[in-house]
Design a protein that fits this description.
Blueprint (H helix, E strand, L loop, with lengths): L6 E8 L3 H14 L5 E8 L6 H8 L5 E4 L6 H11 L4 E4 L10 H12 L3 E5 L6 E2 L4 H17 L14 E4 H6 L11 H8 L4 E6 L1 E2 L11 H14 L3 H26 L8 H24 L8 H11 L1 H18 L3 H23 L9 E2 L2
Parallel strand pairs: 1-2, 1-4, 2-3, 5-8, 6-9, 8-10
Antiparallel strand pairs: 4-7, 5-7
Length: about 375
């Protein structure tokens, strides 16, 4: 594909962006120079300030304004805009002027050079950045990115999976439309996880401060984001927690059995008794994770995974064992309580290492080139 033949639509979801939309469209026409044949698709959720009316006054003959009545949501608006396009590539960008249109030229160059399915404008690549963010806003952004990378395998392979400024092949959306269930504000996560892209590239960009209007980031947005990520990962942390809770009951039941029927294993030989309880509960957890928590990520033989399970969660197991014994021998607390405290401290370590080291995502290979 040559740059001069690049087919592009620019999808802009809007809600109450009347003051920004004219500035943005004018900037797009001034800055986007590499795509000779592009159109602008504004998808407005029936803005109270009449953004869609303003957009109608600004568009050219090949542009589209979609006014959605009784529908709201940034991600679904983006999907609708992509459906209206007939071009090979789609750029998704916000209407608040925080995504500078000049970077679209770099996206086009990267897409052509790498034959990319997705090109992400990244705030966190070398050369990128943000303007005017408070420390709190930066912490929220970094925290959200960390959550995505911890729970979603494909998110780990890019620097800015939370970006709202990206380019995607239209057929990635079209052929996976039935798999997409967009919610919240982070449609890119949905596409990375369920769109099966083959080649993903990134270009750095600087995220600008909003010119007019107020940010739509709030508590509801944060909650929607967390629910979205949990949905994308199959609620795996919740399942892991449930299995961990059941494993805890198994573990503590064994300690209780020792206390009343083999008291030497709950007193003088508590180290041995604690070790036995940990191993039995570990085997229990592994079996339930195999058939429920990670059933879609079973790669290799069960024996290999069992060995990896022990090796990978060894830091968590040692943390649990050492903590339980320090508490028991150091304070003479009830052995059941000592074991429970050890389990609670070791749990997050076990989850992180299980997610990253044992049950890795199978199937689609996401090649990331930058």
């Amino acid at each position: 594909m040559e740059v001069k033949n690049f087919q592009l639509s620019i999808v802009i979801p809007t809600y109450n962006e009347k003051e920004n939309i004219e500035l943005l469209i004018n900037e797009i026409r001034r800055e986007v120079s590499l795509a000779r044949n592009y159109d602008i698709i504004v998808v407005d959720d029936n803005s109270l300030d009449g953004t869609w009316l303003k957009a109608l006054d600004l568009i050219n003959n090949n542009d589209i304004v979609v006014r959605r009545i009784n529908f709201k949501g940034l991600s679904t608006a983006i999907i609708d805009g992509i459906i209206f396009s007939n071009k090979e590539y789609i750029v998704v960008m916000d209407a608040d002027l925080q995504h500078p249109p000049k970077y679209i030229n770099s996206m086009i160059e990267s897409a052509v050079k790498k034959n990319a399915d997705i090109v992400i404008a990244s705030r966190y690549r070398e050369g990128g950045g943000v303007e005017g963010w408070s420390t709190l806003r930066l912490i929220v952004s970094k925290g959200a990115t960390l959550i995505a990378k911890l729970l979603l395998p494909n998110a780990r392979r890019v620097s800015d999976p939370m970006s709202g400024f990206f380019m995607v092949r239209r057929n990635i959306i079209a052929k996976n439309l039935s798999k997409l269930n967009p919610m919240g504000f982070k449609i890119l996560l949905e596409i990375l996880e369920r769109g099966s892209p083959s080649i993903v590239t990134e270009i750095p960009y600087t995220f600008r401060s909003r010119v007019y209007g107020e940010s739509k980031l709030g508590v509801r947005t944060i909650i929607a984001y967390i629910l979205h990520v949990l949905n994308l990962c199959g609620w795996r942390p919740i399942k892991f927690g449930i299995v961990g809770g059941l494993g805890t009951l198994v573990n503590l039941s064994i300690i209780a059995f020792f206390k009343y029927y083999l008291p030497v294993l709950a007193s003088k030989l508590f180290l041995l008794g604690s070790s036995i309880a940990i191993e039995v509960s570990t085997l229990f957890n592994f079996i339930v994770h195999e058939i429920w928590t990670f059933k879609d990520r079973r790669i290799g033989t069960p024996y290999r995974r069992l060995l990896l399970f022990h090796l990978t969660i060894l830091p968590g197991l040692l943390t649990q064992l050492i903590t339980a014994n320090i508490i028991f021998y150091g304070t003479s607390i009830n052995p059941i309580i000592s074991q429970l405290l050890g389990i609670l401290i070791g749990f997050p370590i076990n989850y992180i290492l299980s997610e990253l080291g044992i049950w890795k995502k199978g199937g689609t290979y996401l090649a990331v080139k930058t």
